[in-house]
Specification:
alpha+beta; Immunoglobulin-like; 21% helix; 16 strands; 215 residues; 2 helices
Amino acid sequence: MAAKMRACKSCGAEIASSAKACPQCGARNKGLPLAVTILIVVLLLFGLIACGVASCTGLFVASVDDAVQETSQGSDIVGPDGQTLTGEAAKTATFPIGSEITVGDLVIKVDAPENRKPGEYDSVKSGNVAVFHVTATNKSESPAYISSGDFNLYVDGTKIDEAFTTDVNFIVDQINTGKTAEGDMAFDLKSGSKFELVYTPNFLTEQQITFEGAN
């Protein structure tokens, strides 16, 4: 069987692969040392692993960023006219008080406030209690939540205190699938005030829905 031939690295002459030295120039004919070969293989493997980790990390970070962005945008809103608001338009939507809107899968209506005289033991500074009636229907396939803590009332940018009265009980519980819950919330609001009732569906989002009106 003919010996395998190769070119000498020094002079280029054709020599046998098994030859220890080139017969033409005397240069030694040997491959890479075992240690060097192992080092190269290790470096290649390390490079492949590093690239894989970087790729996975990049995908993970991208997924987290997408999730955070999606969460911060909040839910789509269907207004009283049936128009759907998404993205930035849904983050700071404003509607007249008394509008029925759908936020995600929760249908919400806040009626115009009813002015009441404070009770004997009610601590009210304005001399008037504005009571807002809230109706919420859960259209999703899982429980939904709503409470008076999701709403804040403002007049000219100033937050108005809640009025804690004995005859006002707001819903502070979950709403099962397909069910409706109703309740009231009261504020220490002077009669004849123009107000903004701000609803925050989820504290994890930047979404704030405003109901404007006057009492």
